[in-house]
Amino acid sequence: MTRSLLVLVALTSLAISVTACASRSEIEAGRLAKEQAAKAEDDAKCRSANTKPGEPAYEACRQQLATKRAAQAEIDYQKARDFDRILGGLNEQ
């Protein structure tokens, strides 16, 4: 009874870990969806300032938001890299 329970638990955890893996196409689709959502959000923010696409103020607004997003992405990347270095440093002895 105990052995079959252990096998069941092992198979269940294996099944969960296999289904949790995302394929490359799923990852790319998620990235594209996130990018489209960001563009739509930027468009809504700039339109709420009473500007329309093609106007210099609208283009400046979109550029400013894109610059902020790129700066935040760089900060997030640096944080993740530093975190990985810390974890890697703890494993080295």
What features would you describe in this structure?
With 93 residues, this protein is mainly α. The protein has one domain (24-91). 85% of the residues lie in helices and 0% in strands. It is built from 3 helices and no strands. The protein is elongated and about 70 Å long. The relative contact order is 0.05.
Strand content: under 5%
Average pLDDT metric: 83
Total domain units: 1
Alpha-beta classification: mainly alpha
- Helical coverage, percent range: over 70%
Q: Cα distance, first to last residue?
A: 43 Å
Major β-sheet profile:
none
Calculate Rg over CA atoms.
23 Å
In DSSP terms, counting alpha (H) and pi (I) runs of 4 or more, how many helices? 3
Q: Which regions are unreliable across 5 or more consecutive residues at pLDDT < 50?
A: none
List the helices and strands and how they pair.
Elements lengths: L1 H19 L3 H24 L8 H36 L2
Helix pairs in contact: 2-3
Summarize the structure.
The protein has helices at residues 2-20, 24-47, 56-91. The protein is mainly alpha-helical and 93 residues long.
